[in-house]
Amino acid sequence: MTGARTFQASDWLHDHQLWIEIFVVFNFGGLVADIFLAHSQNHFHRPSEYIPLYFSIAATVTLAALVALRSRAPAAWRDVGHLVGWLSVAVGLLGVVLHLDSRFFYERTIRSLTYAAPFAAPLAYTGLGLLLIANRMVDARSREWAMWMLLLALGGFAGNFIFSLTDHAQNAFFNPIEWLPVATSAFAIGFLVVPFFVEVARPYLKLCAAVLAVQAAVGMLGFGLHVTSVARQPAAGWFEKILSGAPPMAPLLFPNLVVLAAIALWTLSRITVRLKPDTTDCGSVRLQADRDPVIGGANIGTTGRTSGPGS
After folding, report:
1. CA distance 83 to 81
2. pTM tops 0.90, yes or no
3. Burial class (CB in 10 A: 0-12, 13-18, 19+), 211
């Protein structure tokens, strides 16, 4: 573990590791409301449906406390964070099995997959768990850390593509605008996957940022349309309207993932990697990494070690 240094209030803008911790805390907090609404539709028919609700509450409280303690008790921040992360991965994978078991495992058709409980939804827990784990296992000052964050954001946009496709297929894409999140999420996947195959420069990262801005706009538009749909429901109270209408929180997945991807792109923008010819004794060309001045003046670390709080 790298040496921890005292965290100062002025450092928060440069502390990418802290950004991810806060992102995860807010997401677990949002999942409390999301799970409560989703599982209230069948009145928590199975006792197992309480598992993600209770886990989300416990994870939110625990991780919020860890954020406050990360500079004073880095070992506790690391170990407890790992525990919460791996438990979150397990909850997510278990949820996928239980959601598919609601219908798909019995009929095994595209139709049953579409109308079953959203099978990819529990993977939100798996993604958040992997964020916690990667934030502790990979040096937050390195390019590898940024690529892990970008990979998890990319997985989130892939999930958004599946959600948008299957959810809107339930009403046969009655409104043509329902194709918009399907197309834009696929567009985002196409842009964000490129840095994993070729070296990219800052202009491309700026183009990716513009694509993310479109994703955020689509999410806010979807939120407005879903809220309008909820308001038009014939149910008596707002709680019943929310349960019977389009899920109002679903489109917010778009701006939520924009935040995660933006953190990754911002970190990558501080580290430029280019091919620099350097002939060795055997005449080969060696890949060298140059970097712009990193925010905060930190040196680039390597993967395979845990980065301490505020490092």
Report:
1. 5
2. no
3. middle
